[in-house]
Predict the 3D structure of the following.
Amino acid sequence: SISRVYADANERRPREYWDYENYEIEWGNIINYEIISKIGRGKYSEVFSGVNMLNQQPCVIKVLKPVKIKKIFREVKILQNLTGGPNIIALFDLVRETNSKIPALIFEEVKNVEFRTLYPKFKKNDLQYYFTQLLTALDYSHSMGIIHRDVKPQNIMIDPFQKKLRLIDWGLAEFYHPGVDYNVRVASRYHKGPELLVNLNQYDYSLDLWSVGAMIAAIVFKKEPFFRGDSNFDQLIKIAKILGTDDLYSYLKKYGLKLSKEYVEVLEPYPRKAWNSFVTENNRYLVDDDVIDLIDNLLRYDHQERLTAKEALQHRFFTSLD
Ligand code: ATP
């Protein structure tokens, strides 16, 4: 299957734009940067808060763990292509430790407030504002031919005092080429789209929109994460218990896929659950017909049925003021 939008975003750009394997990194000077404190660690990196000694500008230093050089090239090329785009974390520089040659990426810093503290305080207008920012970043990235593939709260930095949102961690991002088979071992379990769980290799930008839907549902219904699987296998079961099995089977049929044997043995027929059944005393103030319709149009098994980032931005939930 081929993306409904931006399918030729890479083919119409010069080869150097997307051919990340054949390009040479220009290294900056590491002595310009000083580490101040450790702020995070990921699977692929250790992250520090730092400062550029030339202009005293604060920055974030992401020191990469040893991974395939190809993966580093991809992350760097993607960041260079997207830097300057709306709400995309800006890559300032790229340096190497003198002896070890370990690479480090230098980014703009966001004074992030942890999502577990921030999201529970969101009102409808905060949801409208921050998801507009996120969808703008995604529509831009998609228009540039790039799928993020790891959209989740941990990768969205928000400074609520400056009302600044930045999409970070482009380490799993990939260039989209129509008809190419992609690795389904991407994204983090709770935010993995059904395509990844049923081994549909020809996915596209719409993968990111599933993750956005799962995030919005989690905030609106105060159920974090919205789909909590104990394993990749269980993740699809958790989705099926809500979206129902009928639509799952039509999805599989449409793309000529079969569930693996382990599923056939345990997957009972589940009806589709009404979105309103997630409304409680505690979340009622965030729920209205518009947000339910938005969630309903993002959390679709069939990736071709999901709203695109641009369509989502034009949804009534974002355009209505009250
Ligand atoms: P993962 O294991 O999630 O893939 P990773 O190794 O690819 O992580 P990042 O997600 O890029 O690394 O960064 C790890 C953490 O460092 C982030 O979750 C965040 O808390 C912090 N961080 C990274 N970049 C920034 C930034 N520009 N501003 C503020 N904090 C940041």
